[in-house]
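Q: What structure does this chain adopt?
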Amino acid sequence: MKKIYTSPDRLMVFHIKNLLESYNIDCIIKNEFLASAAGELPPNECWPEIWLNDEQKYDKALEILEKNILTDEVTLPTWVCTRCGEKLEGQFTACWRCGESRYR
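A:
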């Protein structure tokens, strides 16, 4: 077994586990319930961890993580609201001024 990921964010840990399993990479989560020991133990030692069952799949799993999770955020192009003409940044799906959806 080999550890591939750890984070204080349980949701991200479970998301990554599901992602890896969708590529048929078996993994388990360790320290899932250890958060209550923080203080007695160093906090980062209590973070949930993802461990691969097959160490030979480590490189493939890391490639999947880099492609889907560990890269910089994708910057979406700006868009103009069709209703009021407001220029909006790409991450927004609705106009802040009039509420028009980007995807009508």
